[in-house]
Amino acid sequence: MKNKKVNAKDKLIVALDIPYKGTGGYYPDEHFKQIVKVINKLGSSVSFYKIGFYTFPLWLDLIKYLKANNKKVFLDIKLSDIPETTYQAVYLATRLNVDMITLNTNDVAVMKAAKRAVSRFEKSKRPQILNVTSLTSCAIQIKENK
């Protein structure tokens, strides 16, 4: 087997969990500009970004911006819903060309719904689906309550 050289920029995923820095309310346009400034500063040294709940109002704009700039997107939203809703969310995320998406479930039907959603696309267009079955903060709380 031939050793494939992997660039560090292809292994690194930078989280865009950047809190809004503003006063007197929340202004999504300003928050978007703050995040884009970070992306542009990192330039070609980073090719993969994580979008999570810190940037909820900006998800669509950030995905479009990153994809337009040939970046990979990890949509870390830990979907935890009924199978049909999960199917729709994963289907739409796949249409937006996200590269990874997270679920947060122990329900096999939900996992199958996510798989069914991505299976509608060519293999090269399918995002990787990660399932988080236990969140750290939940595990710590459970341990402390014992």
Written account of the structure:
- The protein has 146 residues and is of the alpha/beta class.
- It has a single domain (8-145), classed as Aldolase class I (TIM Barrel).
- It has helices at 8-11, 28-42, 59-68, 83-95, 108-118, 136-145, and strands at residues 14-15, 48-51, 72-79, 100-103, 128-131.
- A five-stranded parallel sheet has the order 1-2-3-4-5.
- α4 (83-95) links the parallel β3 (72-79) and β4 (100-103).
- The radius of gyration is 17 Å and the shape is globular.
- The chain starts with 7 loop residues before the first helix and ends with a helix.
- 20% of the residues are buried.
- The mean pLDDT is 90.
Order of helices and strands: HEHEHEHEHEH
- The order of strands across the largest sheet is 1-2-3-4-5
Strand share of the residues?
15-25%
Instruction: Using the alpha-carbon principal axes, give the shape.
Output: globular
The major beta sheet can be summarized as: 5 strands, parallel
Structural class determined from secondary elements: alpha/beta
Compute the separation of the termini in Å: 49 Å
Radius of gyration: 17 Å
Q: What is the mean pLDDT? A: 90
Proportion in helices: 40-55%
Separate helix tally: 6
Q: Give the total of beta strands.
A: 5
Summarize the structure.
This protein has 146 residues and is an alpha/beta fold. It is built from 6 helices and 5 strands; from the N terminus they run αβαβαβαβαβα.
What distinguishing features does this structure have?
146 residues, alpha/beta, TIM Barrel, 5-stranded parallel β-sheet, 5 strands, globular
